[in-house]
Amino acid sequence: xxxxxxxxxxxxxxxxxxxxxxxxxxxxxxxxxxxxxxxxxxxxxxxxxxxxxxxxxxxxxxxxxxxxxxxxxxxxxxxxxxxxxxxxxxxxxxxxxxxxxxxxxxxxxxxxxxxxxxxxxxxxxxxxxxxxxxxxxxxxxxxxxxxxxxxxxxxxxxxxxxxxxxxxxxxxxxxxxxxxxxxxxx
Length: 186
Prior knowledge:
Blueprint: H1 2-6, H2 10-35, H3 58-77, H4 82-109, E1 125-130, E2 140-146, E3 149-157, E4 168-174, E5 180-184
Parallel strand pairs: 3-5
Antiparallel strand pairs: 1-2, 1-4, 2-3, 4-5
Helix pairs in contact: 2-3, 3-4
């Protein structure tokens, strides 16, 4: 192995060293990402701040040098000149950084806040889970699908009879403190 490395030109050795180190770092980043042990990138802004497209991150720089090295080695093996190899390497590395930045940008757009907006419950149909007292005498609970998720929420009714478990209901109002006002459905 050492004999092979000694026979390389300084230009080739430089590319192999960059490629070896960056590939090792790329594998570390990949493994930590897969097992969930990754930490925040140096220089990154948390995605929740709405900081959009981030080009210069640790992951992108590691990807740049990995692709830079491997594309340069492939270019040298193809017999390209030094200048052509450098241009191909830089272009390939920048292209990889752009693709990764775009990928992370669009993935961050897929997340949702998960904040429940009680007004979205209006006119929804659900089912009584725990008895709701007649004429707002006792708070009960209902199960209702809001924003794509089944939720268990507190409810009151203006109806003259208690609404027992299993009764189908409709949300007609949301109070200022987030309690749903319901009425029974036939």
